[in-house]
Amino acid sequence: MQIFTFVLMGVLVFFAGNPERTIAADASVHGTFALFEVEPTWTTLSSDEKTKGVQEATALVESFKDRITFDSYWTYGLTTDSHFLIRLQSSEAKINQELLTQLAGTGLGRHLDLEFTISGITKGLNYAPDFPDLLAQLKAAKYEGDPSTYVIMIPTRKSAEWWNLSKEERVALIREHTVPTIAYLKTVKRKLFHATGLADADFITIFETNNLEDFNNLVLALRMVKEDKYNIRLGSPTVLGTLKSWNEVGALLTK
Ligand code: HEM
């Protein structure tokens, strides 16, 4: 029994922290996305003060490493009113909240504005098991090529009409959504969080890619299927950034 529990935990941690996984994990992971802008007061600090502020924040992130999978993205210049986005994934949104609250008290955090935050949870697949032919293709698809350099986060809200369709109708529409996407799994990694009732969105979609042109074509293809008529909000905000380790973000902030 103990061995089974240990193996199961290992599998869950792997899926929680693996953005390359193309299908949502079975166990619920609580994801929180926090978009920060650095206040102008930061630039008035000495180089030593900035370094110390970043070190405090880094030590905090490190202290949560057994509980939170942490990803960071540099958004300055690509997304309005922001410098970086962080993605926190853990077993409970309150653990993500604990890190963010403590971050506000660090030498860096005292100069950060939290411009936008949103949380959601992963769930098992709702529809794809009802189209096993495409599901097999989804499972078989592999990301190819160079590591991703870009991140795109898009919250989505669906209409009441969507939720009142029958399951069979939704399966048919999501099948239609899935058909044009398969070809893009070579260049786009994705993860879906459910947010109905937890945020002003039903879903948070996050993508990593090296190829913004492919991503643009993918979203265009999805705007041309019937399922899109039930999307009443895509983005607001759409966050575009580049993948950076926390150390790289720290280096950019102390430059
Ligand atoms: C490689 C690209 C993509 C693939 C392979 C893909 C595939 C899928 C699949 C299989 C599902 C159904 C999951 C289930 O069974 O529960 C799904 C759902 C969803 N996809 Fe995509 N998708 C892709 C890109 C996108 C993009 C670009 C967006 C929006 C910008 C998007 C938004 C969504 C949303 C919001 C859902 C949840 C729909 C619902 O449960 O009502 N997807 N996707």
Structure summarized in a few sentences:
By secondary structure, the protein is α+β, with helices and mostly antiparallel strands.
Describe this structure in words.
Strand 6 and strand 7 (203-209) form a beta hairpin. This protein has helices at 2-16, 47-63, 93-104, 132-140, 160-163, 167-178, 212-223, 246-254; strands at 30-38, 69-74, 84-90, 112-121, 150-158, 188-194, 203-209, 231-234, 239-244. It folds into two domains: 2-121 and 245-254, Apc35880, domain 1 (Alpha-Beta Plaits); 128-241, Alpha-Beta Plaits (2-Layer Sandwich), CATH 3.30.70. It contains eight helices and nine strands. The protein is of the alpha+beta class and 255 residues long. Helix 2 packs antiparallel against helix 8 (246-254). The radius of gyration is 19 Å and the shape is elongated. Strands 1, 2, 3, 4, 5, 6, 7, 8 and 9 form a nine-stranded antiparallel beta sheet that branches. Helices cover 35% and strands 25% of the residues. The structure holds protoporphyrin IX containing FE (HEM). Residues 125-128, 138, 154, 156, 174, 177-178, 181, 184-185, 188, 190, 192, 203, 205, 218-219, 222, 234 line the site of protoporphyrin IX containing FE (HEM).
